[in-house]
Amino acid sequence: MPAEDLNGSRHHRGSDLDRWEAQLRKGCLEMAVLAALAPGRNYGLEIIRALERYSDLVLSEGTVYPILNRLREDGLLTSSWVESETGHPRKYYSLTRLGYERAIRMAEVWMQFTSGVNALIRPLLPEQMEKVR
Amino acid sequence: MIMTNDPLEMYMGRFQANLPSMTLAERQDIVDEIRSHVHDRVAAYGLSIPEVLERLGPPEMVAGEYHRGNLVVRERFSLLALLRIPFAAVVTALHGLFFAVIALYGYAGALACFGLLIARMLFPEQTALWMTQDWDFGMGADRPPDATVFLENWLQPIAFGAGAVLFGLTTLLLQRTWRSMKRWYRRATGPLEVPTLSGARKAVSSLWKEFLDARSRLMRVRTGWQNS
After folding, report:
1. Which of B73, B133, B140, B171 is the most exposed place for a label (fewest CB within 10 A)?
2. In terms of residue numbers, what domain contains A114?
3. Chain A: nearest CA to B214, how far in angstroms?
């Protein structure tokens, strides 16, 4: 195969991989947002910080707010505006009972799912999988 | 229209223009939240506003995320949803027609006013507005003997003012029509959004939450006034 074709093919595969990774992150984000609110109520930037602290799920901060809005519409979160010491109000979110139950269920599904997939991919990355364990 | 170079205002303008249709209160709530995020990021990290906006992502993309999953379920078939698409297409076409008519008559009117102004400057004797006793209006030198000339010295400033107002109003109306037309066009060509019973329930619950939010906001404002 000519070198140019090989580079083009690699580039194409790279963008496919990027897309797949972006979809994967996006898919997890809803659960991660619910999990970030499990300790108590919080506002947008702090939720993003929590997500950044424990994961690198947030590729673009703007994706978090529509998710919060959607979860609120679904009755999983409630929100209220609170005056802050910085001089502008912040919108605080907290889990509803339904949201809390959903977060637990999602976490269970996630654990089950990842343990299965981890077992499957273990032969591919033996050293890294040891660290995960 | 207020023109601004403020990057935050420009971002918010583009963001709002791309939000899906929703109640004013809901739209304001979303916009306030994004604005609050920007201020928080600037205060907490000392980033510049353009840097914060870059981290947020393109306004069209962020607004686009609100399109998905709001009060609608997509996978189910419904006759209503099918009818909505031709309806949106018809409304888009009507917008286009309205746009063309406004552009034609508005700018033609403005042009006529400016033309009158220039004609009056170049040919003051031949340019005059007159009215007969039978309420016939006309313009030019060949007026009937019983016609009365009016707006003699005021013709130029009034023609200029009317032309400027007509030009401005036409432009404003065209901008609004264009924005509205784009929204209807997106509905006509966008993904199928099917209203369901659960969607209606959510809509009612959302309205109730909006009412509660608005009430708490009002209380906040009132508390602010009392404190100040």
Report:
1. B133
2. 30-132
3. 10
Q: What is the pLDDT of residues B18-55, one digit of tens each?
A: 888 777 788 888 999 999 999 888 888 888 889 899 88
Query: Which CATH number does the domain housing residue A99 bear?
Result: 1.10.10.10
User: Whole-prediction pTM value?
Assistant: 0.51
Number of domains, chain B: 1
Q: Which domain holds residue B15?
A: 1-70
Kindly state the tokens that stand for B38: 């920007």
- Count of the separate structural domains present in chain A: 1
Q: Is residue A5 part of a domain?
A: no
In a domain? residue A101: yes
CB interface of A with B, residues 49-78, below 8 Å: 60-63, 65-67, 69-70, 72-75
Q: B69 and A80 in contact by Cβ < 8 A?
A: no
Residues B57, A62: C-beta atoms closer than 8 Å: yes
Give the HSE-up count for residue B9: Cα atoms under 13 Å, Cβ half-sphere: 5
Which ranges constitute the DSSP H helices of chain A? 3-36, 44-54, 64-73, 97-121, 126-132
Encode burial over A43-76: b for 16+ CB neighbours within 10 A, e otherwise: bbbbbbebbeeeeebbeebbbbbbbbbbbbbbbb
Please give the average per-residue pLDDT across A88-117, as a whole number.
93
The answer to whether B144 contacts chain A (CB < 8 Å) is no
Residue A88 lies in a domain: yes
* Closest residue of chain B to A44, computed from CA coordinates: B37
Q: Which 3 state secondary structure label does DSSP give A2?
A: coil
Say which of B41, B70, B202 has its CB closest to residue A45.
Answer: B41
Predicted pLDDT at A11: 55
Residue B66 lies in a domain: yes
- pLDDT at position B73: 37
Tens digit of each residue's pLDDT (9 = 90 or more) over B135-169: 877 777 677 777 787 777 788 888 899 999 999 99
**Whose structure tokens read 């036409």?**
B170
